[in-house]
């Protein structure tokens, strides 16, 4: 949104000019119709409400030094001053009358709801001593950090490397790892970075324009692309707002997307629309011929014939039968994609990739279209993520750790792209290990993950989780099962570096505690950020530095040295020094830009909040690489190695960068999959989903539940305490097609019982033509709950009772959302009573056997709710959920792989250990 405001004595303006940010004056809109002038200091920071990292400007009232509002930062290269509703709603999160203001320690049994306020010193001493003991006793793998909302470019990696532990866990396997694996298998880069603004054709899988990945920065560029003439196609079984804006809506039956994409690839190949010169130059077709067509002369013509043969089954007729989308429309879109040669932008992130068994093949099939149209890294095409993302480096880098934690990367999933995070409770229950100290950071697995009751079970068990510290800005369904609840800052209350691949360019941005920054600008000094935040809300950066010193007070463990100042040897690092060093030394072009303004680099970032490092980044794979004379060139493949490491590829006599794959080319054929137990999936293919039509029994009333779609106004746990957002969106009814509703005899508002493999939930129907027949859909953003008063935001949570029931657990709402008394008068004006239904609790885990991603879509039976069911009921049978886990475990094809490796060396890990650790037991390679 762009704000226009009337300035005292001037004309309408969209944004305050940067040269007036120190003392900005404008009329107070709340005082209207009176003209009351306010004076502000405008301090930039970064939104924390989704991964897009849009810029915000905090309006710090110069009279009270209190933040009065957040608006967009016009100098941010990705968001360019615009935000979605969640950006300005940061003000609600900061001033929430129910937020956690001080560190808390449990005073009774874990989960019993008794808390006492403690000091940060006590927290640091107690947790530090426990970690120190674990390290001294060689129990390094018993310390784990589990992140929900990441950020902190490389900062946490540095902390965990300094501690020497394999303790990084993430949420990624319930989010995006399937798509990531698909992209990584092609190019070594695990995310796409489409140049929507210059595309001639844009294909989106799922509703990116309104709620997808990098939502606001992408949306504005998709619209720019459309205004410049690009056509937009959207594959989504829901008529999302995005689909309604598209030139082509392809309502594919969930899980059929790869079949449609491969049919489009077949059209490109059969109709001469593919750029075969590009395919010959950049793909590893020779490797394919050597391994899959050994008896055939390895010419490119023979390869093209073989490729057509590989995809001959993917006719438009097959695609129509699988997807339900008209074959002529599929062909029409394919031809337009072919006509966009060199400027085809596309994206899949969650959606079909995260919903389905084999979802990673959806990303591979989509990337096949990008490769066939020669659109990799071109203006208007789709680049690898890393080209458009900045990562800092440090004055000293701790060495890679030598541990391998089987709780994170177990042998059953040697190719899992990220940690098997959502199976942690199942692994602990199976006796695969225990945790001594477990940090959850802005992470709410009880509510966000499937099988949340399994998390409750394990988090309550002190024999399995010795100490649980929840670093969180808000109460959550997980924090209530912690030993320490440690309040951490929202967007304008902490430091952080952010950079994302939002478009064709590379930028860095700076999240900062805005009141601290404003007061420091006025000459005050502070030791810790919690001195300027509400209560004693702190920030992670300072917390980890302090904790690391408590773990290793005398430096004997070799940890402390990594948290010493680069400017004052032997002294404790300050957060200011940390960012000062990075901005002075590790951001190309920033020192010069700052100097032109007479500023130090850190002051430049404090003042403007973001810096564009490079614009128009394209075709880096074709860049020349200088290699030493002793570089080895493989005559078969052209791969160029220096001291055993691939550095480039020789093409037409020139060594160029290529891609970080084993072949250094785009791997249309994956030797990795062939050698690691998945030969049938070595090419981009189509895996029939676990919710394929054939897997559903219509006679039993089985349908497909699509539980993954996002609401543009909410974000998982953190928006629970944002009053504006909950006022806009506070219910998540079950979308059901008119025909299915007629069959079941239900109307909008009727109660439905949705029965999953392990239980059921009860929600209201929303009857609509905007969903494919046979499919029901429910947004995953709602249904927050609290067991006790004071342990959950009353803007969004229902009060519930959780009790044993029928061999399992029944969660029942006892009171919906309603007005309450607080310091904020708006809390007494809450008009909504609905907070939605928590569906994820009733889902079993579905780990994809290759990517490790949880496959979110559910086979369900939908029926009118029987008498006795209440709105919001969730019933779960945890024994059955363990059985479903074992059924999926049996689908895995365990390692080790070639050479006794736990995992291919070339596939990265978020916190990569030494190469020796890839072998079991660890030994030098
Ligand atoms: S898209 Fe919205 S929630 Fe996400 S970073 Fe931007 S303003 Fe914040």
The overall pLDDT average reads: 95
Bound heterogens, unique: iron/sulfur cluster
How would you classify the helix and strand content by structural class? alpha/beta
Unreliable parts: none
Per DSSP E runs of 2 or more residues, the count of β-strands stands at: 36
Q: What labels would you give this structure?
A:
six-stranded mixed beta barrel; binds iron/sulfur cluster; 36 strands; alpha/beta; 925 residues; 26% helix; seven-stranded mixed β-sheet; globular
Any overview of this molecule?
- The chain is an alpha/beta fold.
- It has 27 helices and 36 strands.
- The strands form eight sheets. Strands 8-7-19-18-17-9-10 form a seven-stranded mixed beta sheet. A six-stranded mixed barrel has the order 27-31-28-30-29-35.
- The termini are far apart.
- The structure holds iron/sulfur cluster.
Compact description:
By secondary structure, the chain is of the alpha/beta class. The chain starts with a strand and ends in a 36-residue tail after the last helix.
Give me the secondary-structure topology.
Elements: E1 5-6, E2 12-13, E3 24-27, E4 37-46, E5 55-61, E6 67-72, H1 90-95, E7 104-106, E8 115-117, H2 120-136, E9 143-147, H3 155-163, E10 168-169, H4 177-187, E11 192-194, E12 201-205, H5 208-211, H6 215-227, E13 231-235, H7 241-244, E14 248-250, H8 257-270, H9 276-282, H10 285-292, H11 300-310, H12 316-323, H13 327-339, E15 344-348, H14 351-355, H15 360-372, E16 382-384, H16 424-429, E17 435-441, H17 445-448, H18 452-459, E18 465-472, E19 484-487, E20 496-498, E21 505-511, H19 514-521, H20 540-551, H21 575-585, H22 590-596, H23 601-608, E22 610-615, E23 632-633, E24 639-642, E25 645-651, E26 654-656, H24 671-675, E27 702-706, H25 723-728, E28 734-737, H26 738-744, E29 751-755, E30 759-768, E31 775-777, E32 785-786, E33 798-805, E34 808-815, E35 858-864, E36 874-876, H27 878-889
Parallel strand pairs: 9-10, 9-17, 12-13, 12-15, 13-14, 17-18, 18-19, 27-31, 28-30, 32-33
Antiparallel strand pairs: 1-2, 3-4, 4-5, 5-6, 7-8, 7-19, 11-16, 20-21, 21-22, 23-24, 24-25, 25-26, 27-35, 28-31, 29-30, 29-35, 30-36, 33-34, 34-36
């Amino acid at each position: 949104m762009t704000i226009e405001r009337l300035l005292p004595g001037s004309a309408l303006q969209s944004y305050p000019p940067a040269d007036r940010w120190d003392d900005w004056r404008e009329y107070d809109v709340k005082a209207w119709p009176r003209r009351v002038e306010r004076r502000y200091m405008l301090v930039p920071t970064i939104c924390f409400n989704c991964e897009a990292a849009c810029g915000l400007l905090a309006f710090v009232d110069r009279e009270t030094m209190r933040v009065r509002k957040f608006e967009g930062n016009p100098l941010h290269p990705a968001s360019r001053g615009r935000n979605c509703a969640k950006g300005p709603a940061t003000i609600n999160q900061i001033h929430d009358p129910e937020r956690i203001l001080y560190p808390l320690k449990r005073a009774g049994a874990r989960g019993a709801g008794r808390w006492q306020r403690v000091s940060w010193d006590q927290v640091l001493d107690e947790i530090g001593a426990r970690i120190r003991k674990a390290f001294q006793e060689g129990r390094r793998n018993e310390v784990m950090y589990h992140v929900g909302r990441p950020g902190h470019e490389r900062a946490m990696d540095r902390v965990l490397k300094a501690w020497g532990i394999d303790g990084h866990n993430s949420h990624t396997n319930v989010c995006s790892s399937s798509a990531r694996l698909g992209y990584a298998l092609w190019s070594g880069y695990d995310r796409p970075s489409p140049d929507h603004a210059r595309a001639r054709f844009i294909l989106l899988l799922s509703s990116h324009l309104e709620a997808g990945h990098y939502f606001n920065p992408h949306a504005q560029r998709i619209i720019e692309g459309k205004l410049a003439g690009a056509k937009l196609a959207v594959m989504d079984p829901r008529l999302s707002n995005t689909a309604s804006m598209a030139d082509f809506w392809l309502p594919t039956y969930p899980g059929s997307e790869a079949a449609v994409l491969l049919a489009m690839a077949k059209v490109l190949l059969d109709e001469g629309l593919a750029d075969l010169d590009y395919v010959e130059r950049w793909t590893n077709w020779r490797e394919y011929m050597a391994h899959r067509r050994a008896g055939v002369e390895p010419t490119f013509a023979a390869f093209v014939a073989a490729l057509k043969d590989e995809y001959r089954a993917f006719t438009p007729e097959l695609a129509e039968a699988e997807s339900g989308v008209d074959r002529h429309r599929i062909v029409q879109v394919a031809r337009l994609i072919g006509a966009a040669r060199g400027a085809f932008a596309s994206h899949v992130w969650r959606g079909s990739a995260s919903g389905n068994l084999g979802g990673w093949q959806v990303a591979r099939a989509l990337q096949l279209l990008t490769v066939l149209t020669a659109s990799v890294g071109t203006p208007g095409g789709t680049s690898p993520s890393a080209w458009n993302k900045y990562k800092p480096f440090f004055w000293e880098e701790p060495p890679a750790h030598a541990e391998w934690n089987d709780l994170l990367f177990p042998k059953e999933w040697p190719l899992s792209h990220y940690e098997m995070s959502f199976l942690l409770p199942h692994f602990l229950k199976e006796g695969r290990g225990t945790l001594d100290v477990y940090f959850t950071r802005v992470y709410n697995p009880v509510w966000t993950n499937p099988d949340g009751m399994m998390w409750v079970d394990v988090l309550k068990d002190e024999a399995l989780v010795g100490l649980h510290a929840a670093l969180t800005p808000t109460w959550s369904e997980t924090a209530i099962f912690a030993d320490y609840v440690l309040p951490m800052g929202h967007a304008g209350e902490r430091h952080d570096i952010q950079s994302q691949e939002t478009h064709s360019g590379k930028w860095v941005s700076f999240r900062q505690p805005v009141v601290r920054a404003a007061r420091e600008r006025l000459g005050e000094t502070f030791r810790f950020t919690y001195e300027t935040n509400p209560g004693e809300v702190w920030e992670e950066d300072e917390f980890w530095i302090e904790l690391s010193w408590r773990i290793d007070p005398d430096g004997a463990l070799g940890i402390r040295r990594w948290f010493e100042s680069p400017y004052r040897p032997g002294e404790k690092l300050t957060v200011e020094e940390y960012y000062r060093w990075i901005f002075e030394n590790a951001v190309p072009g920033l020192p010069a830009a700052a100097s032109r303004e007479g500023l130090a680099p850190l002051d430049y970032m404090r003042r403007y909040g973001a810096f564009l490092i490079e614009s128009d980044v394209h075709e880096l794979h074709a860049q020349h690489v200088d290699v030493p004379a002793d570089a080895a060139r493989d005559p078969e493949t052209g791969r160029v190695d220096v001291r055993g490491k691939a550095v480039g590829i020789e093409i037409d006599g020139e060594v160029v960068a290529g891609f970080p794959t084993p072949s250094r080319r785009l791997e249309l054929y994956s030797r990795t999959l062939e050698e690691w137990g998945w030969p049938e999936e070595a090419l981009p293919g189509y895996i029939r989903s676990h919710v394929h039509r054939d897997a559903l029994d219509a006679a039993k009333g089985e349908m497909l539940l699509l539980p993954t779609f996002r609401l543009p106004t909410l974000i998982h746990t953190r928006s629970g305490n944002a009053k504006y957002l909950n006022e806009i969106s506070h219910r998540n009814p079950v979308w059901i097609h008119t025909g299915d509703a007629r069959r079941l005899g239900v109307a909008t508002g009727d109660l439905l019982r949705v029965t999953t493999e392990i239980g059921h939930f009860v929600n209201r129907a929303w009857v609509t033509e905007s969903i494919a027949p046979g499919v029901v859909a429910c947004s995953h953003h709602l249904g927050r709950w609290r067991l006790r008063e004071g342990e959950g935001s009353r803007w969004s949570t229902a009060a519930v009772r959780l009790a044993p029931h029928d061999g399992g657990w029944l969660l029942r709402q006892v009171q919906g959302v309603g007005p309450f008394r607080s310091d904020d008068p708006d809390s007494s004006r809450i008009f909504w009573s609905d907070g939605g239904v928590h569906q994820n609790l009733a889902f079993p885990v579905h780990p994809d056997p290759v990517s490790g991603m949880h496959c979110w879509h559910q086979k369900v039976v939908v029926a009118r709710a029987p008498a006795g069911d209440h709105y919001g009921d969730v019933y779960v049978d945890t024994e059955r959920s363990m059985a479903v886990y074992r059924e999926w475990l049996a689908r895995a094809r365990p390692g080790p792989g070639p050479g006794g490796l736990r995992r291919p060396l070339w596939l990265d890990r978020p916190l990569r250990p030494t190469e020796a650790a890839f072998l079991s037991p660890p030994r030098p390679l």
